[in-house]
Amino acid sequence: MNLETKREAKLEIVQVGEPVLRQIARPLRADEIQSPEIQRTIAAMLETLRLAPGVGLAAPQIGLGLRLAIIEDRAEYQSSWSAEQLRARGRAPVDSHVIINPELEVLDSNTQANFFEGCLSVAGYTAVVPRSTRVRVRYLDQRGDKQQVEAHGWYARILQHEIDHLNGTLFIDHMKPRTFMSVKNYLDRWRNAEDEAHRIFGS
Ligand code: ZN
């Protein structure tokens, strides 16, 4: 028997309607972060995120009310978007990293960007969500060391979305309701006609 090669199973991503998605998650203690249990959870979350695939996954989405999330925006996820779409969103690859007990500071409270976003816990749907374009986040990494990042564009959006999860908030709480639509309709009809979508759906 070789347990070393046993891989973590893909975790179930819970869907909207599950109470944990609406609860305030609790901070991790310093001694918990380095525990085998939390380290295994982080590894399993990264595998789950890549299989989904997605660019962010927060612990409440796998049923754990902990202030922990993982972020990774791989270059391969961006290949189906035009250079103009990536530029407009300020989207560039982000290496995988863990944020624990994050504190968010908005750096541009006067400007917001309006783009469609989705969530692995609201599977199959998307909507326009106004988000700040520049944020600073202080957090602990998976070793428990203090880190700070200043992010803009899409990375700033991902950070806001994931930190919202730790406070029981989903994108549907911030969305422009008339833009709510299926991902299929978005990809088939509006992804390359976003200006028209904003006009028709009144965002
Ligand atoms: Zn989400």
Summarize the structure.
The chain has helices at 30-33, 36-51, 83-89, 153-166, 183-190, 194-200, and strands at residues 56-58, 68-73, 94-106, 112-118, 125-132, 134-140, 146-152, 181-182.
| Number of individual domains | 1
Overall helicity:
25-40%
Low-confidence stretches: 1-6
Q: Quick one: biggest sheet? A: 5 strands, antiparallel
User: Order of helices and strands, N to C?
Assistant: HHEEHEEEEEHEHH
**CATH H level, superfamily name:** Peptide deformylase
Q: Compute the gyration radius: what is it?
A: 17 Å
- Proportion of beta-strand residues: 25-35%
Number of strands: 8
Please give the CATH class.
Answer: Alpha Beta
CATH topology: Peptide Deformylase
Please name the CATH architecture: Alpha-Beta Complex
Describe it.
By secondary structure, the protein is α+β, with helices and mostly antiparallel strands. It has a single domain (19-201), classed as Peptide Deformylase. The protein has 6 helices and 8 strands, in the order ααββαβββββαβαα. The chain has helices spanning 30-33, 36-51, 83-89, 153-166, 183-190, 194-200, and strands at 56-58, 68-73, 94-106, 112-118, 125-132, 134-140, 146-152, 181-182. The strands form 2 sheets. It has a 5-stranded antiparallel β-sheet, with helices on both faces. A 3-stranded antiparallel β-sheet has the order 4-5-8. A hairpin with a 5-residue loop joins strand 6 (134-140) and strand 7. The longest helix is centred in the first third of the chain and has 16 residues, at 36-51. The structure holds zinc ion. Zinc ion is lined by residues 119-121, 161, 165.
